[in-house]
Specification:
Blueprint lengths: L1 E5 L4 H13 L1 E2 L2 E2 L2 E6 L12 E6 L7 H5 L6 E4 L5 H6 L1 H22 L5 E7 L22 H18 L4 E7 L1 E2 L12 H11 L4 E3 L6 E5 L1 H13 L10 E3 L3 E4 H12 L1 H4 L2 E3 L3 H8 L8 H5 L8 H12 L7
Helix pairs in contact: 1-7, 4-5, 6-8, 8-12
Length: about 325
């Protein structure tokens, strides 16, 4: 089996690569080769039991998508995207990366002919817009309130149509906000959800730009990798025509996030959070959903964290060696 990861230099791409190396197989089949692609050259982890080829290539340039699928990978993970805050601030860049790059990839697959790869597309809960029901099911209509959500919604429609026409065997997974994201802050409007946990545990101050009453939908990086692996192995006949589905997660308020941090790490750590309202971020976040009905995903075998405390503990265990700055 040959696998392609597009967006391999990002946090999820790095962790997915590490998981595939550790497993040595996907969907019960040995991995023979792995292609990792991003706009910057991804790092090749040591110890892989199969060949890894890395490439720095921009999929928004016409013709480049044809290059990356020339080896006809059996499974393609499409993780590459401009995050929400940057897509909102830079209209042209957001549509170029999140929409044009996606369509170039899908069309490159179509042009090959007789080639039916499994394509796992990372979508987002930002495809939904207010007003919301108490819990959003897969069949709730998509009315995104951001450019990022719009771009992801279009990607979902393309994936479903290209799958219907036999171009690919696609599945779109709407990821919750991934928390706690390791590393440095990015330009996502949702970045503070991770920041108010990550920075205090590292002994640093974190800025909270919204009210503690804000509720959101979360999953740990560990769970996100599990979603991707499960999606690659899934019998997509069970999806029918509805190729995109909500991933399970944890619904929690910002206040509940802070309380979980306080219970685990203590008051001194939680006190490193500084309240500094930001009207732009508050406006963007106010248009995001907070709770989901994920019975369909659960029935298909997808699993997430049990609580926000589990999410915090996953970060401490996976990224901090089991400890933190007291």
């Amino acid at each position: 089996m040959r696998i392609l990861i597009i967006g391999a230099a990002g946090m999820i791409g790095v962790k997915l690569t590490a998981r595939l190396i550790a497993d040595g197989a996907l969907a019960g089949k040995p991995i023979e080769a792995l292609d990792i692609v991003d706009v910057v050259s991804p790092t090749v982890p040591p110890g892989a039991p199969f060949k890894i080829e890395r490439r720095a290539i921009d999929l928004t340039v016409p013709g480049n998508a044809d290059v990356v699928i020339a080896s006809r990978p059996d499974v393609i993970f499409h993780l590459a995207a401009i995050v929400s805050g940057e897509a909102e601030a830079d209209f042209d860049k957001g549509y170029r990366v999140n929409l044009d790059g996606t369509r170039y990839l899908f069309d490159a697959i179509r042009k090959v002919g007789g080639y039916l790869p499994r394509v796992v597309f990372t979508s987002s809960i930002a495809v939904f817009g207010a007003p919301f029901p108490p819990a959003i099911a897969d069949d709730f209509f998509e009315t995104p309130l951001t450019s990022y959500g719009t771009q992801k919604a279009i990607g979902e429609l393309l994936l479903a149509d290209y799958s219907r026409r036999g171009v690919m065997d696609g599945i779109g997974i709407r990821l919750p906000t991934i928390c706690v994201r390791p590393g440095k802050p990015n330009k996502a409007a949702s970045g503070f959800f991770s920041g108010i946990i990550r920075e205090p545990l590292a002994g640093q101050e974190a800025v909270l730009p919204v009210e503690e009453s804000v509720r959101h939908w979360f999953a740990s990086p560990r769970s996100a990798i599990g979603f991707l692996v499960q999606a690659a192995a899934l019998d997509t006949a069970k999806l029918g025509a509805r190729r995109n589905l909500n991933m399970p997660g944890v619904s929690a308020t910002v206040g509940e996030e802070i309380s979980a941090l306080r219970r685990i790490a203590g008051e001194a750590v939680a006190a490193r959070i500084r309240r500094q309202p930001d009207a732009t971020i508050a406006r963007i976040v106010a248009g995001w959903p907070a709770n989901f009905d994920t019975q369909r995903a659960l029935a298909l075998g997808f699993r997430a964290d049990a609580s926000f405390e589990d999410i915090v503990r996953a970060h401490i265990g996976d990224e901090l060696g089991g400890t933190w700055v007291h």
